[in-house]
Amino acid sequence: MAGRPYSSFFLLFSLLLLITFSHIAEVSGAKLRASDCKPKCTYRCSATSHKKPCMFFCLKCCSKCLCVPPGTYGNKQVCPCYNNWKTKEGAPKCP
Predict the structure, then answer these.
(1) 32 touches 68 (CB < 8 A)
(2) pLDDT tens, residue by residue, 46-93
(3) I need a labelling partner for 78 at 20 to 30 A (CA). Which of 2, 41, 72, 88 fits?
(4) What's the DSSP call for residue 30?
(5) Residue, of 20 and 48, whose pLDDT is higher
(6) Bridge partners, 86 (sequence order)
(7) Nearest in space to 27 (alpha carbons), one of 68, 73, 82
(8) What pLDDT band is residue 33 in, cutting at 50, 70 and 90?
(9) How does 18-45 read in b/e, with b if 16+ C-beta sit within 10 Å?
(10) Residue 70 contacts residue 27 (beta carbons within 8 Å)
(11) Cβ(83)–Cβ(76) below 8 Å
């Protein structure tokens, strides 16, 4: 009986740790599956008036990098591949 409170505490601690790490992975732009690209890019491009080109390049970048930065603008440092992919002219390729 004496070991039971410790096992309950350990189980609770493990659960809280798991929840914390899953939230950190989600916020930090963790690797996506290819099927996650369309909804992430739809949100990423929702604030622009140039939706077609934004979606085209966002989907292309997401399929290569398996990451889309959070929000509708900026935050590219969260996804280094997405951030560092450039056009021939040196401009950012990913929206």
Answers:
(1) yes
(2) 999 999 999 999 999 999 999 999 999 999 999 999 999 999 999 999
(3) 88
(4) P
(5) 48
(6) 92
(7) 68
(8) confident
(9) eeeeeeeeeeebeebeeeebeebbeebb
(10) yes
(11) yes
